[in-house]
Design brief:
Layout (H helix, E strand, L loop, with lengths): L3 H9 L3 H24 L6 E4 L2 E4 H24 L4 H22 L5 H21 L1 H5 L2
Antiparallel strand pairs: 1-2
Amino acid sequence: MQLIEPIRRDLLRRPWWMTAMYIFCIYMTFVYMPFDIFWKPMADDEEVWFGITFHQEWAKLLAPLHWFVYAAMAWGFFKMRHWMWPWASVYVIQVSFSMVVWNLVDERGGGLVAGLPAGIIFLAPAIALWRARDLFRSG
């Protein structure tokens, strides 16, 4: 119980939606990205940046950048670092933009009909992060 209480207090010091983003960044940093970089076969590897899909060798080269972004965001959410504002919001806006672009340019995408709603959905956390400036100043 002594170990769980500090974790519970840490998770409750942020709004629920920010805690969800924090947990997602932890998962990406410690579970998914190491799998993606070290175990996923190069033939199956893909990375998306600004809506453009990179495959195989290029994906393996770009994956450490994603790993860095998720690790930096996990650390920033953990410590509620002041530099997270505005960069967390800017990154999520980039994800929103990428959702639209990917759906328009990738053969697996659903065009504007799928891309626009996906992009709009990601604007909600981007706006919430933008408006959370004071929370990041407290850390």
